[in-house]
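Milestone M4 deliverable, item 7.
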Amino acid sequence: MIRFFTFPIFLALISLSITAQEPSTFSTSSFRLSLDEKGAVSELTDIQNDVNYVAADPAFLVGIKTKGSVLDPVGFKAQGEHVSYMFPGKLRVDLKVESKGDYLRLEVVDVSDEQKVEAILWGPIRTTIGETVGEFVGVVRNKDYAIGIQALNVKTTGGALVNDEGKVPPRGSAALVQDYGSSLQAFCIDRTRPQTIEVWNGFGNAAVVPNPDFGIPGSAIALFGIKEKAALDLIGQIEQEEDLPHMLIEGEWVKSSPLAGRPYIISNFGESTVDMMLDFTEKVGFYSLYQSHPFSTWGHFDLIPSLFPNGREGMKACVEKARERNIRMGVHTLTNFITTNDPFVSPEPHPGLATFAGTIITQDLGTSDTEISIEDSTYYHKKTTLQTVRIGNELIRYSGVSDEPPFKLLNCKRGAFGTSPAPHTRGESIARLMDHPYKTFYPNMDLQNEMIDKLVDFFNETGVSHLDFDGHEGAYSTGYGDASKDYFALRFMEGVDHMVVNGTSQSSHFYWHINTYMNWGEPWYGGMRESQNEIRFNNQATLERNYQPNMLGWFWYQAGTTLEEIEWMLARAAGWNAGYALVVNPGAIGKNPYTGEVIEAIRTWEEAKHRKIFNASQIQLLKAGENDFSLHKISENEFQLQYYRKVAFEHENLVLQPGQPHYSEWEFQISSGEQDLYFQLKASGEEGEIEEISLELDGSQSIEIPVSLKAGYSCIFDGKGNLLLFDDRGSLKKKFEVEWKQLSMDQGTHTLSVSCDFSADSDLVLQGVVKLKDRVEAITTQ
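Output delivered:
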């Protein structure tokens, strides 16, 4: 709700010159904000310890943007809770600053000439705290104290204003690391008037529809300082007192609940396979089964008939089956992406499809003409996936634009996407449609609201209760920046009639209140150990800085996934106390010979993680990607953590005398009892192939590898009679059953020799690793 406040007697005293007055102070139970005689922030004080955290070069509490430029105040006046800042051009912003006991509430109550003020900037509020900077939650903290900013409505965006649309970096900028420590900032853009601006991905001259609820008056923030350990609870208090989203999961606030960061299953199941997938989900003990691609259209959200022949009733039946097992069911879509087969596009395009590069046609156009004359070719040279323009209710694709006037769109395909070719008259409007490489279009803000309502209808009709706002950044197509992402999630959550667990592709400040988890890291770019793992691990610090549950991203369980790979992932999850998504399609369960062992391993590791059985030293080792472990449950209160040691070797392509044998030999020690040989070979390099690979263990046991290795390929002998071949992305290509089922080694010294043939053009090196059991640690719990 927008609040208006007037105080005419006070405003009559305001002078537009740079006037000085007594400093103004506003306090909570633990924090003091002071403004000096010019209105600059002079104190951010921890009252209990009498420590002022304001940076040496303080800034004003607010600024404005007008005519494309950001202005600082030139005058300041304060009386009690009422504060006014004066700006060049006789512009004025009036604030109300209230102490709410544990935080300060600051709100814009009036702007002297709203038509001239394009945006208000809160801050930057500069602090000396730099130890932990929560970039999207908007809290900075050291070991003793935290200072934070919270946007109190969806039109107020937490972050730095750096463009016309109000788009902030993907990981947020409500708090930023600075040389002096950190800064806190927010802004509100006036969106009550139509705009034509450049938006996301270089869509220039984009049409932005107005919204009367997005004016500057009513923009508000909370500002607080408190003991570091109490900061998160205070945000929860602010949510409740300020009517912000305050999401509960099983009766507990999601930000403090251990249930928020749990693992879940992603699967492309349908009505005929849901029982199998629910069985698997129940066996591993996960809380949600998430359908990876259920929709034939995005926009109206029609289900794929081959998966759900009974449509929404079929999905509802699946949800009921899941609910009986205390399992949630989720669906995946790309937030506001619109497929070309959706009724919003075909046969008659919706007027709210997002456009850019608006101009007019300069000649009449017949129904079969394949060239279109346009007045302004700016932004028409920009290549996009669908290359689509709109004239009236016709969509037209084109291949390019002439370089010289009169400008013409060339090789036009009339009546694209099932629309009807029509004649058009000189002077008619033409504009390009924003699109994405997934071959989808986008909505403006009005159409996006229709999309949200249709998604709400789907969730309410079916009872689905889990959603990722994937492609969340698509909301930038509206020209509302991060406010559009936030509003999409807010309107959706306000519309559904039950709790919906949710994740996102991008974080943002206001959406933080709505979000359950952020699960970044995809499995499509390599094996379980290779695909985006640096991103996965680096994300953990980001999540922790922002009071988010640790999540490691998506991992893909395929027919060829080994128990070793699964335990590698589970050990990382245990070390980081992290959740994850396991992609398991119905066919993989029966085809993978390790499924039974994998289920048992998941249950064991997840129980250990939940019971917090690992000590600090073990946790650090479990986090490290280079270490391997297995975990065994011996009894109700006893576990054994098996460590593994790796011996690495290389066999190079050397030039030798004719007839001289070429092999390499390595020696390694087994310090514990008898164990089976487990090894990995990889062709490391750019070009060539390695063939006729032969190994010999202890000079007596020959091992002939029945496959050649191309550049980047690898193979693993699992110690159980299986040789697994992987491609250069770590995906399983083939499994071989070999004659040498097991190769046992007892305690002591062993040797392994290797020989092979390198192709003539090869720059490859044969790299190998022997994995050996190391120490075992017994872990006793209560």
